[in-house]
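Notes, Module 5: Reading structure tokens.

Key idea: the token line is not a picture. It is a compressed description, and you learn to read it the same way you learned to read a sequence, by spotting repeated patterns. We will look at two proteins. The first is printed below with its tokens.
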Amino acid sequence: MSEAQHYKQLVDEWLRLDQNPETRAEIQQLWDSNRLSDLKQRLGSRIEFGTAGLRARMEAGFSRMNDLTVIQASQGLAKYVLKNVDNAKEKGVVIGHDHRHHSQTFANLTAAVFISLGFKVWFFRQLVHTPLVPYTVKQLGGAAGIMITASHNPKDDNGYKVYWENACQIIPPHDSGIAAAIDENLEPWIWDEKLATESPQSQDPAEKGVIENYFKELGSLSAFRADNEASDLKFVYTAMHGVGTPYAKRSFEVFGLKPFIPVKEQVEPDPEFPTVAFPNPEEGKGALALAMKCANENNARIILANDPDADRLAIAEKQSSGEWIIFSGNQIGTILGGATLERMQISGEPVDKIAMLASTVSSKFLAKLAEANGFLFEETLTGFKWIGNRAQELEEQGYNAVFAFEEAIGFTVGKVVRDKDGVSALGFFAEWAIHLHNRGQTANDYLESLYQKYGYFVTDNSYFICREPETIKKIFVRMRYGDHPCPDEKYQYKLNYPATIGGHKVTGIRDLTIGYDSATPDNYPTLPVSSSSEMITFKLENGCVFTIRTSGTEPKIKYYSELASSSTEQARKELKVVVNAIGNELMEADKNGLEGRKEA
């Protein structure tokens, strides 16, 4: 069969299955124009369902986000939930969506699939921020939750995020089980958007009071309401053209905070994201330029920024010099972790049953805080799917899991939601900023005081681009087995990790790809092991910890490094040596033709 015949079959299959005239026309046009390379990208593979659900560009094709692939994903998910959750139809599924192009349609079609199988559907009629979906699963005892959003991705993308009946994001084996069920249910059995709102099986969970209950729980996180009401500290807020504004306003209200100053150009939902190239507050001063202008004009000292689906929070603070500091995710996590502990100590709550969590590529500050104050700290794999599920397990073991974070500006304060939530974190931080203001400190002063007490934690996270999979494989083989790996009698390589890096002795190694941990009695990691991606963590004698891992979606080798020392300057100086060694010694960046950063 020729290449053209092969793609003609795929085109015919797409046109047979797709009922959307716009996406049918897209594929037909590509075929009529003989654009086989485009057809290969669109039709040559299927969009993959993983622990993050689905996320891709919105356009026609089996590998993209569109009506057909959303229906197929929903059919597989519905069948899987029906098989694996008791009384799933009666418990129902929760469905929410953001403001992106096609989000409403994708949510409608998802609801129709579940309704057609006899499920009760808790379908939000209004735009919601992502954390409301898992919260509603928790409140109403749902069998699962689906949020249609691409979070902070560019405007052409959309996504499909799944929560299990425990109100946490799915983790293995559910991801592979759902993926298999999708492959078994590719023939659309319904295509009817009207069912989402017209079926008697569909009910708006807002009518059950879930939004009111969510904010009632948020209000219980407040500890200094009288101070909040009296404060003259000004805050500027941006929703980054997303859905966060009404939820951020309510958060301020339930904490007793005076209204924030909105960045008018960015507070209304707009799927075009007209003022930002990337709607991601992590992008720094570029993304926050309008917020800084607004803050300067209104003499406000603190900027609070949600990403478009408001599950993440960025913070910037103006210093007395006039300089703006944009706190990193690790710095915000340090401030919120310290604040959480201090508030519990003030209230007299027992510390020994506190648990805090962070992902393995995030700052180890919480580990130091826990060691010094006698509470439990645990690290998890990257992503709140791991953090949330582990926090739930710790709760069941009698711990009070009160705070968690990851470096990508994701935070869980309290136990309102077992997922990152930029709205609850926003209110909690604003209240703490006022508390600090009343005792003569800025947020940066408080961060400095934590560093003075527990050590100056400095991070350096970046990546190298490598477009050749074989080169990536070679780099990690050398990292594990040395320059001249030789198989033993069982044809297995003998582990030969580097003994020193950057002149510092290696004191600990955890390899979550092959399943090795030098710190455990049996040398097997306590964290989940997966051979599908590369991930090695090194600990050095000088206290530096760094993780090197591959990206599942981009041609990148990422590294996350951190070192604590007696001063920021000293920590930066020592970390620079290690970061240079990551590129030069471990990855041999020049020799392997890696693109990207070569110096700290």
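Here is the second protein, with the sequence above and the tokens below, as before.
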Amino acid sequence: MAMAMAMGFVTPIKCKLTPIINNNNSHYHALDASYVKRAAELSDKSAGFTSPHPNFGCVIATGGSAGRVVGEGYLYGQGTKPAEVQAVEAAGEYSRGATAYVNMEPGDCDGDLAALSAFIEAGITRVVIGIRHPLQHLRGKAVQALRSEGLQVDVLGEDIRSVSIEDALKSCLLVNAPLLYRSASRVPFSVLKYAMTLDGKIAASSGHSSWISSKMSRARVLELRARSDAVIIGGNTVRNDNPRLTPRLGGGHVPLRIVMSQTLDLPEVANLWDVREVPTIVVTQRGARKSFQKFLASKGVEVVEFDILNPKDVVDYLYDRGHLSLLWECGGTLSASAISSGVIHKVHAFVAPKIIGGKNAPSPVGELGMVEMTQALELIDVCYEQIGPDVLISGYLHPIPDLAPIIPSLDETSAIDPSLSPYDSPIIFFNKTWDPYGSFSNFSPHPIQLPDGSGDYVTWPSVEHYYQAHKFVGSSNPNARSYVEAIYLAKSPEEAARMGRKIQREHPDMVRSDWENVKTEVMYKALKCKFSIYPHLNSMLLSTAGCVLVQASDKDLLWGGGRDGECLNYLGQLLMKLRSEFLDVDVHKPEISTGYHQS
């Protein structure tokens, strides 16, 4: 049931959809629509295993009314083989003259043309796209590039307008809803989740709440967490439930844990203060319990202060830190505040066939200030699904953003208005591979080939694979070799990073003895290889001359710089040093220390 999670790929009992296109004079394109919908379903298959990222799927089919599928693929994660390349490889010689169907315009990593080249070189003659890319610096680029190569490109809702495509277009919007909301609203996609009894209670009058919903519903919640960048709760949840907030899916993506507490009236003993496996951030009002803030810092918990703590400022802050999607698992007080602030986009309500009663028993949403039923907030695109004895009701508080008004015209000669681009900023931030300068990320899909020390060369899937594996290359422990091989075979850079950090934390005896002294040299060697063998990456790096490069990662205090410059930004420093070498500019750069014990 991994595909039947947050974005709506379920088998509902009943589902009400908002009409998108209703053009009775349009041509019938049911076959095109079915293939695009299949691409959207494929794109969702990596959910819960990699960090949230744009979802891409591709289907290649032979032409005509009797067409058949000859190749499929989906993007597993940042830095992995594009869906389009996988589909072409699967189709083989059948690609020539065939049609490729994608749920979203290609463009996961700016400057990487692997997907487009795969279509062109394989002889694909037509490409059907569900939606254009929502990110401004990528929107329209692939469409224009393919058309300039002579391929026919049809976009649902633009070139294909028919009632028969409504369902397919809706699937394309749903599967990338987090990216669409983030692009249009400049906030992360926020989902409110709660479980309640048939009479609308989330706990008994005593506060006891374990368990309202069934095991099957709780398993679905774990899947929802694994789809999210971060999980947010309030202080009451920490005090009453002492949660762990982990996905517990066996090696899948682990979201950040965030506690919102205005007064920091929190217990000293809590599962969330154990950050060995999962980081925790506590956001609070400026000046609250300074002594407790120091206590949390001693535990490795990050504390962030706000002048006035409210959900809107918190999600704005998390947007700046690069987060794509948030899951709110809070009580009624915080959920009401979040809804009132307008930051909640979707609701998942698990309703259990139980009645507990109680005048003082808490409800899932606190006071919203409404006095008449006509003021009630009504969900749209509502779906109902039975999960064991429970019913999951989900729907949107705000419609999925319609980006159509700012899509470039079909006869465009310039894809992007430069005034809307962040390129001109003296500080260039990068983090996710789908950022404007995402190719600078160690997770970008650029394999590197380096000597293995015995005269042979090894091709590593990404810089991150190489870096994490070399923590154990040359270790005095004979068992370390197996970890090097396991990291080399990791399916995505994120999994390589997670694996390397976990082994380093749990088995320090496996780490090579000189690691703290050589790790920046290892990283620099990998970066130099990457930016030397890919001309377009070299050009992109040189184009940033005069700009400060900052990896806007909030998870890595050593290599990242954060959005406020609170981290060390060693990756950005190394890239700037490399840029100076390429430009042959004799600029003195301070030597980077290697004594900071952070992976």
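Summary for the second protein:
- The CA atoms of residues 470 and 480 lie 10 Å apart.
- The chain has three domains: 20-181, 186-368+376-396, 421-583.
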